User: Fold these one by one.
Assistant:
Number 1:
Amino acid sequence: MASYTVADQTTAFQGFARRAFTQEKRYPVASSPSSRDMEQGSVTEAHLLNTTVESISWYGVTVAVKDRQSKSPRSLVENVEGIVRAGELCALMGPSGSGKTTLLNVLAHRETNAKTVDSTVLVNGLKMPLSTFRKISCFVEQEDALIGSLTVRETLSFASRLSTDTKSLPVKDRVARIDSLLEAFGLREQADTLIGTPIRKGISGGQKRRVGVASQLITGPKILFLDEPTSGLDSTASYEVISYLKWVAKRNNLIVIASIHQPSTSTFNLFDKLLLLSKGKTHYFGPVPLVRQYYAQLGQTIPLEMNTAEYLLELVNTDFASSRGFAPEQVEYLQRAWEASPQCAGARYEMAAVTFDCGKIVLDEAHQKPSVPSVIMTLLHRSLIKSYRDVVAYGIRIAMYLGLAIMMGTVWVRMDTDQSSIQPFTNGLFFGSAFMSFMAVAYVPAFLEDRLQYVKEHHNGLYGATELIISNFLIGIPYLFIISLLFSAISYWLINFRPSAPAFFTYLMWLFLDLLAAESLVVFFTSLFPSFVISLALVAFANGLWMSVGGFLVSPDILNVFYKYVFHYWDYQKWVFEGMMVNEFADRVYDCAQVPGGGCHCMYSTKLEQQCLIQGQGVLDQYGYRPGHMGRNVGILMAIVVGYRVAAWVVLTLRR
């Protein structure tokens, strides 16, 4: 291993210090876009041009988790520091488990689920509040949450509408901005192509990555974070994505920081700076062109014919060190060599210069955020497009409910008003309402997509849980009403429930409220547990519980005290079933069975027994139901619906 003399270190340190002070000259703040740039479709526009954020720096970044075996803290990232200036593209690179994604989350002010996080992240040498930081930065996920049923143009349009008020950005300028980005990212030919769903094919993987980046750039960030933007792409597509990022960063003076695993040589050389990590510790931070020279000084000459990134990853990877003849002690030595190197000292000197010399920042407030009602209307518009294009959202559910209506109508077809039909009528009311709510589990995947989109857009400061919950509730109302109407129109008259228009519309009302409550339950559980399997299981279990304690399977008079007072009274199926029972039996009369030789036998003893008839109230008495409480019951059911929505809002608000 090579060693440094004091003279060598002093000379190298002076060189890095000079580079630190001339860094601002290498990447000066971009001027206003020229007419030539605009004519060529350049993305250098006022909303993209960064004239305020000069640098982002960080030091002392340490993230620790609790080790399951030793039960003591274990560092994922330890004392990492660095600086990236405007116009630079920085790569966070390291083997799997090196801490690059954790570091990226810390720099982007995102949750890490770690026990302790100690860090100092500065913008222009100053600490910045989270709300302000989100105004100037965006984060692109490794698997970016894009709505597959939207076109490329619509994706950019909705991203723009959610980030900028129409008053500060007229429609004409918004369209021009979208066209400019489509041209710059090579997406003009795919502008009207769907992103793609599991059922309907859309654009390619590389194009999706570019759409993800463009949808964030259109919001006008000054700092862009990307989590492995080349993951799952071939070398050509990876180079394409990174080259666009570099071009945009240089043109608009943006700061771009991306975690990356193992780029090709051509892709690796596109980056301006490299932060190499191993076991959460820094092994190199500085210009990419100087990385070969640095490791050559340590006796690790990188062969010219070998991919530099691949060599570095093998060099600092301890997982397979024994099989390659490398000792973990050698990796530790390389890390200590970095700490003692003049390159490390130069980087720290540059950070110190920024901290002391850039103690001010002026944020660009040229564009205003849209108001809450405006955001809700935009989300409603987007959800409307998604709902009629994506069959998973409501199309499949409508088909399911129509099938259930036909099945029920043909099984319970044209029941008579004989006493033998009383129990089948009761069974039909319970079965229809219970299974309509149970089948709401089909909404789980659709809301999961909405939730993933919300998490991304919320972290990027576009809107909060209030806008999501309100827009989601409003968009569901017409569809749930249509489902209720179709189901009722088919099953109600085929079964021969009480044949009157008021009775039909009352039944329709209860069924609609039933679906509102069932979908609200889905929204709550999916917000709480954003996993398809877990949400599906919990919603199914909850509906099974509501069926059991609703009052049909076990009469409320004999229901277990625990279930009666803990679950029964806030079981929405209980109120729906009670309302439907009162609607069907309160004003209806049934014939008793004729006894051979004269007389009759009535299953229920009522005032009309002498007339060989059964008054419907006698059926209701078996369940303890009385008419005249419709307003109260509707109010309780609406309170349950609102309760689920508020609970979902609380969950989404707390899980920031």
Note: Residues 1-44 have pLDDT under 50 and may be disordered.
Number 2:
Amino acid sequence: MLRRIWRLKGVVILVCSPFILLPLAVSTTEAACAYVIALMAVYWCTEVLPLPVTALLPTVLFPVLGIMESKDVCMQYLKDTNMLFVGGLMVAVAVEHWNLHKRIALRVLLLLGVRPALLMLGFMGVTAFLSMWISNTATTAMMVPIVQAILDQLHGNVDSEPPSKNQTSPVLHQEEEKTISNLQTRGMNGDTETHCKLETTDNPQDNTSSEQKVKEVDRDETVKPVVVCVEDVCCQMELEELSDVEDERTRMSKGLLLCVCYAASIGGIATLTGTGPNLVLIGQMGQLFPQNGDVINFASWFVFAFPIMVLTLTLAWFWLQFLYIGFNLRRTWGCGAVRSEKEQAVYKVIRDEHRRLGPMSFGEVSVMALFILMVVLWFTRDPRFMDGWATHVFNAKSEFVTDATVSLFVAVLLFVLPSEPPRYLCCWRSSDTESQDSRGPAPPLLTWQVTQKKMPWNIVLLLGGGFALAKGSEESGLSRWLGDQMAPLHFIPPWAIAVVLCLLVTTFTECASNVATATLFLPILASMSQSINLNPLYVMIPCTLSASFAFMLPVATPPNAIVFSYGFLKVSDMVKTGVVMNIIGIGCITLAINSWGRVMFSLDSFPSWANSTAPV
């Protein structure tokens, strides 16, 4: 009966949660809004409904409960931040479609080398860089097969000769397991005759048969215990050698897989479009504090978050290297050592994979040029220390042109520019291209079919649901009520508040979506900051970054689930490694927000734009 109930737990949660929380809905307006938030939090944490479907609940519940009109709720689902996300993702889809990300990854790996420590550093650096621009899920899904191919070479037999005890191929892996099992069985059963045979075959010049040796041993009872002891030691040494090989393989596999999924989560924090919580923050800032003067844009966020990403990634590399590779400089870095045959085979795999891509096509070059153009326009739109191009070119305020304008402009160009060179670029044209001239115009760099297939539209609805919740909390008065309840926190140092909240958010995001976590926490933190006269960015920025640091569980984030599905990792491995990773992440965030973040965002003072909320 309990098993049947457990199988139906999703239905039970889906049906019973609204009735259990119903007393909130029939109370005040603030309580009714809290009812919607609590119900969505339960559904988001348990995933009894798809996350984007749960994000649509405010469109139904807010009008029914008298919190907001339907037209006002629906307008929250397609704001400037959503369009920034859509434009950035379209460029990321084009990069992925043309395999530009794979070319970058393989090229960097060839440059860094294949020593264990450098290989891990290469994977982490490439994954983090790609995750800054494309989704962490797509980055991990692209990098893990490369890791698997390299592991196959590291664990395989690359010699033409028979493998030694320390080098065995995956094909012989089952034979090794049988050998280990047989040796263990013989050791437990005391099969000394077989042990003698194993020892005699190692000396081909000894023509004495094993039966004669056994008989000679039997004649002298005083020698027999010594022989048995030697044979047991030999058996134990064989087992230990094979066990050490397997242990080294397993640890190397775990380390490389974990470094990819962790780097994917860490890399996304460096850019506004790198991960969902960053977009939730910029959207909530515009929703709750419309007079903030665009204090956070692509350039300011990158200057603040990129050093955090580099510092966290470096410490994570040291931690994973210590845990799974070790600090043997000669073996892991190759100081003065000749590259082994396995490492040569790994280098050959990466080189062959890179050669398979061929020379860069016209489409790849065009996508790379547009990508660089988008990044440059983002950085120079409003660099803070001087007027950006938006002010000089359009002779207007920089708010007229936002980061969303830039991303959508470049995204539109992807559907306009051709994927094949025009006639006047003869150096790019080939016979295949010339033979296709009769078919009509060349297809664009990106088609809508490809975009529709690869775009994660669910994130757009998730972001919209978060903006609707924030607006509903403001309209119902729930934000003000929560802020009043948190007034006693005024006596706690701000840095301590930030650390405790980071720990809370990091724990919560292990069992909930990072976008959902940021959506639930950021409006509450904004109200709390107003009630204690604390700069809202002092707690909102650290908690936004902490929402991306889900390192402990396979279900915490898609990159974790992808590497866990390969079978090398256990939940205990991820928990053991992830606990330290969470501490590293929170430590780096605390250092940043209390040093260069304090100067960049003027966190020591309560800003004027935080004195009032958005107009009704």
Note: Confidence is low (pLDDT under 50) at residues 157-230.
